[in-house]
Each structure stands twice: as structure tokens, then as C-alpha cells.
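Shift notes (night). Ran Aromatic hydrocarbon degradation protein while the centrifuge was going.
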Amino acid sequence: MKIKYLLSALATVAFAQNSFAQYAQDALRFSTFQPGATARIRGIGNAGTAVGGDLSSIGNNPAGLGFFTRSEFSFTPEYNGSNVKSSYLGNNMSDKRSAVNLSNASIVFHSRVNSARGADKSKGLLSFNFGVGYNRTNNFYENITYGGQNGGNSVANYYANLANANSVPKEELPQEGTLQGIAYDQRLIDLYNSSNSYQSNVRGSVAQLSNTMRTGGQSEFNLAFGLNSSNKVYIGGSVGISSLRYNSINTFTETGTASLFENGNDVNRNFTSDFIRDQSTSGSGINVKLGMILRPVESLRIGALFTSPTWYNIDDSYSEGISTQFDNIRPVSDRQNYDFSYNLRTPLKLAGGLAYFFGKYGFISGDVEYVDYSSAKLSFNGDRDDNTEIRRDYKSVVNSRVGAEARLADSFFLRGGYGFMGNPLKNGGADMNTVSGGLGYRFQNYSLDATYTHVKTSGTVRPYDIGPATPIANLNNRFSNVYLTLGVRF
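Came back to this:
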């Protein structure tokens, strides 16, 4: 990691980011992506490992490209709606956010191999198809708001703990440019000779309000091939060029009363203070996928997929600061910036799937996927313990997806699906559950598919860390997404 500031400042950042942007948490955030897909595959719960013949194969199991008998193009815009309900110190709140993005754009070029006149069209290598696709694999868009009345502690206790943890001698001021130094300069903490330690100047109950705005996502550009051997064995591979962008702005506002030492006396003054933390992260990476689909009989397909780790190069910019105003005194603000570069290796993934086709009437499909999140690895130009935290706090999971498609008429299709994404945390956290449903219409060389998905999960967040007394906000996240795919064969 490229360090532009003193190691003591770096230690402060690592501690300050414990509940907000710690690198071990970002390693998990950027490792939980899923394959991008068309509305059709989204409609069956993303259970497409063994289905084949869909442009989602470019970003999922490339062996599925071997099922194409014509060239095809499609694009899929998506609508994302986020609703986060919070509970903090007995107070309930909620916040929403929505965005429109491009979910998928793909094209496959069909090429027959065994095309000689009189040749057996059912044996040997029959086709070699090449695909190019863009997939959005993760969305970070959401707003999170929580707040309440805290009669037990203040964020100023956190600043004081920072000063005391760094063993600042009582005859010295906290280091300039650190968070505790900013808090001292703004009179939120002070040194009390009776205890020989820094303490909070805040007295009594305080009103607290946190607002976080997150944007960005992950995407992948894939170059893939799929071949068909005797209509029985389908093999494919792809190279994925990944990119990520994550932005988070958090403002934690506290309003209350502080006791200040002025002119030899303790004076109580009303105050409002904002603890501001911003993160901007971007990166690019590469991965490889190898897949196979076997069709032992006409109605059954068995799929397998290996997805290598994604090797990311990441640039991270983090800043934190405090802005405080006492009574009608002009507010004082200060901020410190920290810029780092590091490498991330996400976990590899192993997936298997089955799909059973009922002739022309439809099919059912199911997938299982294994991911060991504790195998993610961060690489820095420096000595850090984030990988120890990854191994300590994360675990392996088995994700599952199931779905079905039914032909209602010659050109109309009905789809439904369910997805389960296991909780990667050893302690706390929650599973993620997705329910989906969709419709499809085929006419001549064109197709139109629409899908709605509803995602539920939950979690906790800490505005600051002061040990067992740290206040905790409980979050219930709901995401509503709509996908629309337009396709054409040529």
C-alpha cells in the first residue's frame, strides 16, 4: 500500500474505519458479486448454470454458448430501488434511493464447423460460437438513515479513546492532523489532570443522526467462446475484465451540551457537531471462467462452472473530519485525507447445476455454488493485519438458486425463481433471499422479456466504536429491481 502519511495517522485511519470502510470489509463487499444476466435468467432466480442457449452464458457458464444455432444480440436496462429501515436506540426510521443502469448487453456470433455437404451433422465438433458481453454484477446504490437520543455516550468518547489509545502524554497535545487532534482543537475532548486521560466534554443526553449515501457498482466485460460436440458435450471459456466503483458519504450529527473551561470556570454550551467520513474507491481486475454442460439425454442438462479469483488493483481515497459549532459561535471545520493503493484477490467459485426440459412446455433448473470468503486476500506495501481479520471473521457458504419457465402459448412464457445467498460472516450478518418472477414473448426473430426481483437481507452498523457501550443500528434492507431485455436473432 502506498503510504503518503505518517504511520501513526495510518493507525488512526484503520481504527476509525472499523465500522465504515475498513479494508477487510471492502474485501467482502467487492467479493459478493453475482453473474450478470438477461431478464429471462433473472426470472428463474439466476439458476442458469445448466440452461444454455441464453446470452447470460457469456457472463455465467460460457459452455451455454454452444447451444446457439444462430447469432443473437440483446440488451437489458434495469431499475434498482432500495428501501432501508433502521432501528437505533429505540427509534425507527427509513430511507430510499433509486437508480437506472444497464444490466446486460451481449452478442454471440454463431459459426458452424461441420458444414461440408454430406457430412454427419450430429457427431463431432458441430459449432464454435464467440460471444462478447457487458454485465453489471453488483449495485451499491442505497441511502441509510438512523438516529435517536443517546443518554449513555457520545461520539466524543470515541475521539477521547483514540487519544488515549495512542498514549499521548498529558503534557503534549494530540497530534495535529489526526481525528483526535481535530476533536481536541474543536474542544470536544480535553485533558483532565485528575484522571491523567483525555475525556469527552459532552454532558448528558445527545441527539444523534446518521446519514449515508452510497453509489457505484461492479461490472464485467467478457470475451467468451462455446463449442458443441455431438449435441452431447458443450465446453466454454471466458476472460472477464472487471471494474468497480464505490462511493460513500457519511455524516454523523450530534447535538447536545458540552462543558468547556473558560476564564477559570466550567461553562455549559450547546453544540452541534458533524463527524464526516467519505470514501471513494475504484479498481479494475481480471478473471477466467471455464464451464461444461453435458446432455446425456434430450431432456436433461448437467452444468459445471469454475470461476477463478478476480485479481483487482484498487485505488482508495478516504477522508474524515469534524465540523463543530458552539451556541452562536462561528463553526470550525477540519479534515484529513488518506490515499492508498492495494491489491485484492477475491475467492474462487465452484458451481454446479441441473436443468430438466419438458419438451416444448418449459423446464426447471437449479444451481448450487460454493464460495469461501475467508480465502480473500489483500496485498499492501506495508504491515497490516486485515488478512487475519478476513480469516477470523469470514467463512465459506453454499449459495443456491432454483427456477422454472413454462410456455403458456406458442409465444408467451411465465417464469419464477428463488435465490439464497449464504451469510459470509461467522458472527452477526444475515442471509440474502431473492424472489423473482417474469414474462417472456417471442415473435419472429425478436424477443421481449421482463422480470421483477425482490431482495431481502439485514445487518447492523456502528457509528463509532467505544467497546461494549457502542450503540448499534439494526438495518432491514429491501431491494426491488425491474429488468427488461430486448433481443434479436440474425
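The first helix runs from residue 7 to 16. The two ends are 49 Å apart (CA to CA).
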